[in-house]
């Protein structure tokens, strides 16, 4: 979804419902927002992926005109199996409570690349 400031990255949201007025001229979307790590309490950590987002408890109603494009938010497992990751691919491992900053689950496995030197 289009941010107010063009210099910011597009917002990611899950469309929960679409509704239009009787004439169909005013289309609204009910969304559930995804947050990027830097938008959360605690900010981005080393283990967060560059395409990682958190499904939040933040719901909103927006004009359908703010939709810029379709993207896909994968589970982490599905994301790691993609042959090619596109600009419109993201992954989610956590749900995020925007009021408290709590994550569910509160722990996940962290994968660290190993380097061997001879």
UniProtKB/TrEMBL annotation:
Superkingdom field: Eukaryota
InterPro entries cross-referenced by the UniProt entry: BAH_dom, BAH_sf
Domain BAH: 1-107
Single Gene Ontology MF annotation: chromatin binding
Pfam families: BAH
Entry-linked PROSITE patterns: BAH
Gene3D superfamilies in alphabetical order: 2.30.30.490
Name by which UniProt lists this protein: BAH domain-containing protein
């Amino acid at each position: 979804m289009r941010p107010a400031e063009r210099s910011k990255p597009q917002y990611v949201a899950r469309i929960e419902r679409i509704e239009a007025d009787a004439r169909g001229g005013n289309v609204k979307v009910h969304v559930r927002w995804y947050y990027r790590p830097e938008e959360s309490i605690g900010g981005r950590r080393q283990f967060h992926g560059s395409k990682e987002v958190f499904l939040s408890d933040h719901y909103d109603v927006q004009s359908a005109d703010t939709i810029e494009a379709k993207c896909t938010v994968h589970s982490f497992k599905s994301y790691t199996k993609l042959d090619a990751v596109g600009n419109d691919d993201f992954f989610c491992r956590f749900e995020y409570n925007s009021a408290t900053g709590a994550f569910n689950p509160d722990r996940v496995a962290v994968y660290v690349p190993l380097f061997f030197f001879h």
